[in-house]
Amino acid sequence: MQPAPMTPNIPGPKATPRTAAVSPEETASLRQIVVAVVACVLGERRDHPDVEDCTHEALSRALEGKSRLRDGEPLRPWVIGIARHVALDALRSRKRTRRVEARMESASASEDTTTAWLDLVPDPSPGPEERTASAERATRLERALGTLPEEQRRALVMFHVEGLGYQDICKRLGVPLGTVATWLARGRRLLAETVGE
């Protein structure tokens, strides 16, 4: 009888704060904080339906997007920021709804007003703040791409812009698969550090 082959003791990936599952106790604690933040921003009681809706939305976004946290970044402040943004979005939506309702009431009150219904619908396109932020991100990204070594930049563009897979990039650049993987990982890390500043 032959002895069973020995397998090396290779440790598995360690759970970091950003990849570890959120415990039910931590979720309950976060929920209380999110409810308080949302209620404060909306100016409503904690048991108001809008507070409950925003709380659910904020927690869903936070827990689903938890993998985007950087290593070592604490979860609680990130969740609070998401809760604040969700509540502010709800406030903006309320204001738009009130403006539309006010226009509709004034239009129906005066018979000689020929306001088109289409004029009463809010514009869904991004506002000036969102367009400015998007343009600034694009500028930072372009500058950051310019600082990368040529091979990392080419690999990133082929993967993210042209949609090529690792194997196709290997063939096109004439390098091994591991090299492409390394270039992409390093390039992404450098871009995240530069654009995230």
From TrEMBL:
Name listed for the protein in its UniProt record: Sigma-70 family RNA polymerase sigma factor
The record places domain RNA polymerase sigma factor 70 region 4 type at 140-191
Q: Which SUPFAM superfamilies match?
A: Sigma2 domain of RNA polymerase sigma factors, Sigma3 and sigma4 domains of RNA polymerase sigma factors
The record lists the organism as Polyangium spumosum
**Keywords, ordered alphabetically:** DNA-binding, Sigma factor, Transcription, Transcription regulation
What Gene Ontology terms for biological process does this UniProt record contain?
A: DNA-templated transcription initiation
Region Disordered, residue ranges:
1-27, 102-136
The record places domain RNA polymerase sigma-70 region at 45-97
Composition-biased stretches, type Polar residues, lie in: 107-116
CDD domains documented for this protein: Sigma70_r4 (cd06171)
Q: Mind telling me which InterPro entries this protein's record contains?
A: RNA_pol_sigma-70-like, RNA_pol_sigma-70_dom, RNA_pol_sigma70_r2, RNA_pol_sigma70_r4_t2, RNA_pol_sigma_r2, RNA_pol_sigma_r3/r4-like, WH-like_DNA-bd_sf
Provide ranges: composition bias, Pro residues. Answer: 1-11
| GO MF term list | DNA binding; sigma factor activity
Taxonomy, top ranks, is: Bacteria, Pseudomonadati, Myxococcota, Polyangia, Polyangiales
Q: Which family does it belong to?
A: Belongs to the sigma-70 factor family. ECF subfamily.
